[in-house]
Each structure stands twice: as structure tokens, then as C-alpha cells.
Amino acid sequence: MADEDSSIIADLRKWTACDVADGLSKLGETHGGFLEGLTMFSPEFQSGSTKIVGKAFTVKMVLKSETDAPKLQGNYIDKVPKGSVVFMSQPTPHVNACYGGLMSMRAQYLGAEGTVVDGRVRDLQEHRDLKFPVFSRAIGTTAATAVSRPSEINVPVKLQSSVQDATIRPGDFIIADLDGVVCVPRELARKALDAIPPKAEADAKTAEAIKKGMSVEEAFKTFRGK
């Protein structure tokens, strides 16, 4: 399984998040794996060629008032596997940031690809100084300590969204770049990758035809079948 995972990750790196979303859409995934509201804040804000690909290492945060929720032993960041994408799930609503610069420093040392925070991050300049990729829903200044805590790692987490129902599971593949964050269900990864090349080839032919003066309507009919 490890060899297959490595092969999938290598193949995902060949494509953009949009390409992968197209592959998932061809398989009937309504949102193409896209996770709404998550934006690249580091190493630059929505700029550059940064792309992260890896298996999701999920971290579930809970409000401190949830006294019955499991308590995590040790610090989650020390458990991050090499090559993974840390996916933080922050409970809503509150404005405190659940991820900061020291966490990126440790994640980078351990070989993580980057971090996606479904919530707020702080210490933005520290992440950027490290050139460590961080995607998040928003920015804040105040640490989460007073209001929330890490509860579990490597458990399914739901996207904190009022407009989308999505679950990120440990071991699912994450690809994130300038266009956003896509979660690829592990069981669909290879099928999605197989679906990408025909679509990419058709798009390349369509683009070339449009450059030469063909109308979009005609180019779509000719090369995309619609």
C-alpha cells in the first residue's frame, strides 16, 4: 500500500488542483473534491507556484467547554508523518487562531508538505519567513488556548462550512495550490488520475483552436463533445 500511495502522490504532482477536481467530477463527485473557503496565505497570499500534495493527517479541535471530548496525549504537531498534509479542523464560531508559527517550524522540520487550517491561523510572517505552505479560512491574532484544544488526530473531520457538506478522512489525498484545496478520497484516487489525461488533452486542443480563431462554441463541440 505504501508503494501505491507514493505512486498516487507522484502522479498527483503532475496536475493542478483544477485538473484533479475535473478528474473527480468525471467520477460524479459534485464538487470535484473542492473544499470551499480555504485560501493560500503562505508563502505568499494567493500568488506563486506553490503546490502541496500528500496524505491528510487530520487534527480535530474542540471547544474547551466540551469536557467529554477525548483528550490528546502529547502535542499533535510532534506526531506529524513525513510527507503528510496537516489538516486542522477548528470548531466554530470563535475568532481565536488555532495554528501558529512554531507549529509550522516543527511541521517543516518533520517533513510535512504543508498545513491546511479549516479555521484561523496567526503569526503569518513567521510562516512566510519559513516559506512553509499554509492554507486557511482566515487570519487572527490570538491563540486558541483560552477557547479550544486539540482533541483527536487521524479521525474523520467535517469541513466547517455552511454551504458544503464535506468530510476529510485520514489517508485521503490533499492537493492544494493557487486555485484552492482539493480532497481526493483514497478509494477514488487512481480512478480520478486515470480520468484526467483525456480531459487535459481535449482542453489543450481546445485552447490551441481558440488561439487560431475558432469560436469557443465550435471548439467545445469539436474537442470536448459539447
From TrEMBL:
Binding residues for substrate: G100, G101, L102, M103, R122, D123
MF annotations from Gene Ontology: 4-hydroxy-4-methyl-2-oxoglutarate aldolase activity; metal ion binding; oxaloacetate decarboxylase activity
Record bears the keyword Cell inner membrane: no
Keywords tagged on the record: Magnesium, Metal-binding
Pfam families: RraA-like
Cofactor: Mg(2+)
TM segment ranges: none
Protein name from the UniProt record: Uncharacterized protein
Origin species: Zasmidium cellare ATCC 36951
